[in-house]
Amino acid sequence: MVVGECPGAVAKVGVMSDIDERVIGWGIVATGDIAHSVAADLKLLEGSRIAAVSSRVQDRADTFAREFGVTTAYSSVRALVEDDAVDVVYVATPHPQHAYAVRLAAEAGKAVLCEKVFTHSLAETESLAAYAVQQGVFCMEAMWTRFNPLIVKARQMVADGVIGDVRMVSAELGFASTHGPDHRLWNRPLGGGALLDVGVYTVGFAQMLLGAPAEVAAVGTLTDQGVDAEAGLLLSWPGGQRAHMDVSLRSPLAGAASIVGTTGRIEFAPRFHHPGRMTYVRTPERGVEHPEVFQHLSEGHGYVPMLRAVAQAVREGRTECPEMPLADTVEVMRVLDDALGQLGVEYPDVAPAGA
Ligand SMILES: NC(=O)c1ccc[n+]([C@@H]2O[C@H](COP(=O)([O-])OP(=O)(O)OC[C@H]3O[C@@H](n4cnc5c(N)ncnc54)[C@H](OP(=O)(O)O)[C@@H]3O)[C@@H](O)[C@H]2O)c1
Hints:
Helix content is about 30%, strand content about 25%. The chain is of the alpha/beta class and about 350 residues long.
């Protein structure tokens, strides 16, 4: 067994011009769990600062600001997006509430990084993506998986033909949620359900490797509130490639994933959506496998590579990162929307989220 270094563990940006040195100001919308984790990672990121935070409740914004040494705290998203010190708006509200903040940010001409899943429906996703393009602003779903150095390496290996033609992808992700029925994970108006919360990682993984599938078959179990507690998906492509995935909010699935090609396979140790270890196995010769292991130590909570890529794209005036274009967000949502339809999950229309 060979233990390999993963090249690209730190994305160097090369020689910096004056414009490249601009410190990027981030505005954080919401003060929940992920806002805390991402704020902590922003504090680790060179050339970035948290310029402002907003909450529906001024007190919560003030507390968050104190915790992270942020000078400006607002009780409205509009005030945050209009702050000249904010270059990038990071949206960390529940899924159906994303669109309100993303629209305001794009309207104000600000770059926007929006938490996964981008929105709760295909129609809303298409409309929001089109609006961002129309406004000419940077806009990306915060699919941090695609910036993990091991995922970047695996994509390169697949593109280089190291495992031959990809024939099969598998991915599973889940946990036994202990949250009550009002929590966003279970609550239908807050976009509850396993497919939107963790299914976006599994479908996003398959789409990253094989593009948009031709067929989607879904099975699952709904809660009394009408959201999917667990689901299984089988996707297929015209060339016969297939992907199978399981997601759950009820059971602690391991979180493994694999990519199987005609001349080898790549396996990700749990949890595949931010892997620290992957194994490449080429087709065995005379029955003996020679696995090659790659490891990577996470920077902070694991969001730093994505945040660094977004800051650099904004400095360079780009509207997308090639790792996670809006077109991919739409393709993934098309699959999730199809699966949710098959299971009978429907989300209500959402009133603007206020702050
Ligand atoms: N990338 C990742 O690893 C990761 C991990 C977890 C979650 N996420 C994503 O991040 C988003 C937020 O998840 P979370 O776990 O941070 O949720 P959370 O802990 O419930 O926090 C969500 C925050 O959104 C704000 N908010 C605005 N409108 C709201 C409404 N109508 N109801 C409830 N809260 C509202 C609240 O902040 P204020 O009270 O300050 O307004 C709340 O604290 C979701 O889209 C989720 O999928 C991503």
